[in-house]
Amino acid sequence: MDLFRTAEKMGFQWLKILNKDPRLDGMDDLSGTEIPLHYIFKLASHAIHLVVFYERSGHYLWHGPLRLKQHMDRKFVPFRKLHFGRYPGAYEKPELLLASIDDLKVQIPKNPSSFLEEISHSRFLECRYREARAFFQLYPDDASLDAVEFRKKAKSLLHLAALTLNNLGVKFWLSSGTCLGWYRQCNIIPYSKDVDLGVFIRDYKADIIPAFQKAGLPLKHKFGKVEDSLELSFQGEGDIKLDIFFFYEEDDHIWNGGTQAKSGKKFKYLFPKFTLCWTEFVELKVHVPCETLQYVEANYGPDWRVPVKMWDWKSSPSNVQDNGVWPVDEWDDVIQIY
Amino acid sequence: MLNVEVPRHPASTRKILDVEVYSSRSKVYVAVDGTTVLEDEAREQGRGIHVIVLNQATGHVMAKRVFDTYSPHEDEAMVLFLNMVARGRILIFTIKDEGSFHLKDTAKNLLKSLGSQVAPFLSWRDMWTFVGKKGGEVYGEKHAKSPALSTWGDPVLLKTEVHLTSMEDAECHWPDTELNRRRRRFCSKVEGYGSVCSCKDPTPIEFNPDPLKDNKVFDVPVAVIAGNRPNYLYRMLRSLLSAQGVNPEMITVFVDGYYEEPMDVVELFGLAGIQHTPISIKNARVSQHYKASLTATFNLHPEAKFAVVLEEDLDISVDFFSFLSQSIYLLEEDESLYCISAWNDQGYEHTAEDPSLLYRVETMPGLGWVLRKSLYKEELEPKWPTPEKLWDWDMWMRMPEQRKGRECIIPDISRSYHFGIVGLNMNGYFHEAYFKKHKFNTVPNVQLKNVESLKKDAYEIEIHRLLGEAEVLDHSKNPCEDSFVPDTEGKVYVMFIRMEQEADFTTWTQLAKCLHIWDLDVRGNHKGLWRLFRKKNHFLVVGVPASPYSSKKPSSVTPIYMEPPAKEEGAVAVPAVAAAEQT
Predict the structure, then answer these.
(1) Cα separation of A163 and B378, whole Å?
(2) Which of A7, A40, A223, B152 could bond to A259 as cystine, CB 3.0-4.6 Å?
(3) Is residue A28 within 8 angstroms of chain B, CB to CB?
(4) Bridge pairing between strands B314-316 and B28-32
């Protein structure tokens, strides 16, 4: 309260943006008072944009979008020029440093360039809880002990994979069944069997395999090669696997490859071009394709809303294409099973 | 329903309300300016005198009560309530079915003093309506006598006009402070909270309890699980905010439903409140509310490793946070612990003595407890009962599949007091029998003794030490008699009862019954050992041979056996085993 009164005394005009607290979003319908997301202080032709960050489960900072309400002055400041607020954003929690700037003591991120670099790809998507609730009305959730156990293992595996890839600096996103689970029901699909991640082939690092080995996830199979249709699969605890699909970018589409071990047959899965956004999934900050609906529809077709328990990766996906066969002399290289 | 085409008075500087009040055997209603503010024609409910309080400047409903003055003591409650209402408020009364049978003189005189001419003569099955201003004029009264014992008076419809006053006249003139602005917002909306709304010397709404040195729970979020018992919530929050070391910024009240009055109470104290759209029914609704509240608590405080869980019908002791600050490290360091609870199921006025003493028990008492985040996120939340399962959340938490052999830390003297009489699992009889005489700590800043000895292995050493020190009582006497325990103070005694195997509680249950402690299910045991006080002596009960402590029994002593009485003269119907909290 004092901040605003003092600012007014100094001649500032100010504006505050409040909105719903997304931390109350979930499978339950909760509503509390709105939380402050942004403040703008204006004096003459200068404006100070105060962005309010909230810490969320998954050890990251989140800020909300800047949306003007009906009665607000759209000309208060040139809103379009602001760096923050077009979308909600997610950032690594920065360590702060006390610095002296123009004789003013301010806190700044310990690593400013790292923080600034995050801005251009900070866009955050909330999970679609309302749609998830509607989904569970139609298809009641599996509350069996097996399902609970599987979800626990899958969550653990996902956390470990995220840790390993983040340490390597390899960007990844939720793919296939894991992405569908996020998009459709904000949770791991209990009959999905594996955890699926996507990585752009240009981000591939040879260190990936030894790093996972070191983390307790040995390589189960390696299909394809860096130049074509690369796919890695790591063994998690119990029955569960971690599948990493590598995506290849073309001019007007993106694809990943699949291999059938016994026949050497190759498959190609096509996706429209997509960009990556952040989201929160099972207490983890992870990437998902921003254009998720397109991505999910490409993979699962228009009936993606309907649970399908028997999924055949060779034929079920809508976007699968035959892609020939590996030459036999390459088989040792492109089909490695452990 | 009302004809909404009721002609209104032309807009004038002095606003006039049209009030309609209806009283009959099976239906009552009250309408203000064409809007029905009370309507009750359900069978088998709502009998007695309905009271509505309107704000004299706005005409808004500030309180709605019904006092079943057909039954005893309700008239006393009505007198208490009416005495708390501020002068100048508009009071509306109407009888449904019968409201005179236990309407005693004190109540009748009070109604007379409010201007009623009929109240002193109200009798069996009379119908009655009355609208008056407290401390002011009567706006209307109508009455129909019952012609014969077997019949009711004719239905009565009273239509009258009430002139509204200015806002100024309806409010107190407290000094303009932030606190008083909150107070004004509350007091012009709600009635029935007594002196917090007094014009002169209103009760404070800000408490400045002493800070707690080295407060280890300052950053622990506190979740208050609430329903629609705003007067309970009010009482509870007062005690919570008066506890030493409380951090109001960490408190969130979760209301199960879109009820206004509990949120008004939350705002009065400047706290954060969240409303939850209720799902399911009965105990499953409560269970879903707990889940939603706990999940939200950890989402709002992602760095928290624990959460304190409280309900709206508890008084909180002044040293509640001090107690937790001293003991919470146990929950962090000892994996064999399930929770820390402020409640001792066996801690009655005659069986609890030492505020600095802690126990380990194999039950989860609830009623003011600390939940470890990892337990919730990794174990409980993923398999929390789904909405169609009509289970009590705390009974579910106590099941071996969830508890997995872990124990809770409790104090000998409880740090919470359960005052709720009305609720899903509560009633007056149950409260009287099991909760009223519960001992509650009122000593501030109690230093807990030997907290380290509550860890798993250290506790065994402590038990063995105690058993070594304990004097074996004369097992030929009746353990239910006071004389079973000598007239000493501060000594340690031990008694051995028959306990054939781990789940044999036959004798214990009988003993609990005759000692007038909790006997509805088995609580407070640790490996077949119970600890309590009798006549200010520490009293240990060991179950033989099931308890590992049986080895301490002298060979000459025969464990006492008590069996349940033969089922002849219709034994008292014991209420179905239920958790004792919740809406």
Answers:
(1) 19
(2) A223
(3) yes
(4) unpaired
The pLDDT tens digits of the residues spanning A238-278 come to 889 999 999 999 999 999 999 998 899 999 999 999 999 99
Contacts of A284 (CB under 8 A, 6+ apart): A58, A158, A159, A162
Radius of gyration, alpha carbons of chain A: 23
Write out chain B residues lying below 8 Å of A21, CB-based: 300
| Predicted-complex ipTM score | 0.90
What is the SS3 assignment for B515?
A: coil
Nearest-5° angle of CA A318, CA A322, CA A327? 150
pTM of the entire predicted model: 0.90
**Tens digit of pLDDT for each residue in B253-303?**
999 999 999 999 999 999 999 999 999 999 999 999 999 999 999 999 999
B273–A32 C-beta distance less than 8 A:
yes
* B394 annotated active-site: yes
Active site residue B519: no
Q: What is the pLDDT of residue A1?
A: 64
Tell me if B486 sits within 8 A of B472, measured CB to CB. no
- Nearest chain A residue (CA) to B383: A148
Chain A positions in Cβ-Cβ contact with residue B275 (cut-off 8 Å)? 30-32
- Residue A299's closest CA among A282, A283, A318? A318
Chain B residue closest to A188 (CA)? B382
Residue type, position B229, single letter:
R
Q: Where residue B421 falls among pLDDT bands split at 50, 70, 90?
A: confident
3-state secondary structure chain A: CHHHHHHHHCCCEEEEEEECCHHHCCCCCEEECCEEEEEEEEECCEEEEEECCEEECCCEEEECCCCCCCCCCCCCCCHHHCCCCCCCEEEECCCEEEEEECCEEEEEECCHHHHHHHHCCCEECCCCHHHHHHHHHHCCCCCCHHHHHHHHHHHHHHHHHHHHHHHHCCCCEECHHHHHHHHHHCCCCCCCCEEEEEEEHHHCCCCHHHHHHHCCCCEEEEEEECCEEEEEEEECCCCCEEEEEEEEECCCCEEEEEEECCCCEEEEEEECCCCEEEEEECCEEEEEECCHHHHHHHHHCCCCCCCCCCCCCCCCCCCEEEEEECCHHHHHHHEEEC
Among B521, B508, B490, CA closest to B559: B508
Q: Which residues from A are below 8 Å from B296, CB to CB?
A: 23-24, 26, 28, 30
My answer on whether omega of the bond before B575 falls inside 30° of 0, hence cis, is: no
| CA separation for the pair B83, B77 (Å, rounded) | 10
Q: Are B442 and B352 in contact (CB under 8 A)?
A: no
Strand order, beta sheet including B222-226: A30-32, B272-276, B251-256, B222-226, B306-311, B369-372, B337-341, B407-411, B358-361
For residue B129, the Cα-to-chain-centroid distance in whole angstroms is: 33
- Grouping H, G, I as helix, E, B as strand and the rest as coil, residue B524 is coil
Q: What is the DSSP secondary structure assignment for residue B314, as one 8-state letter?
A: E
d(CA B331, CA B454): 10
- Please report, for residues A269, B251, B254, B324, the alpha-carbon distance to residue B221 in angstroms, rounded to integers and kept in the order given: 48, 6, 13, 13
The residue from B256, B313, B319, B334 that is catalytic is B313
- Predicted local distance difference test score (pLDDT) of residue B14: 64
Shortest Cα–Cα distance, B321 to chain A (Å): 25
CA-based end-to-end distance of chain A: 64
Separation between Cα atoms, residue A303 and residue B296, nearest integer Å = 32
Give the Cβ contact number of residue B238 at 10 Å: 18
Q: What is the pLDDT of residue B129?
A: 97
Closest CA to B310 of B416, B431, B212: B416
Q: Which of B272, B292, B300 sits opposite A23 (nearest CB)?
A: B300
Whether A321 and chain B come into contact, CB under 8 Å, resolves to no
Task: Give the span between the Cα atoms of B496 and A127, in whole angstroms.
Answer: 59
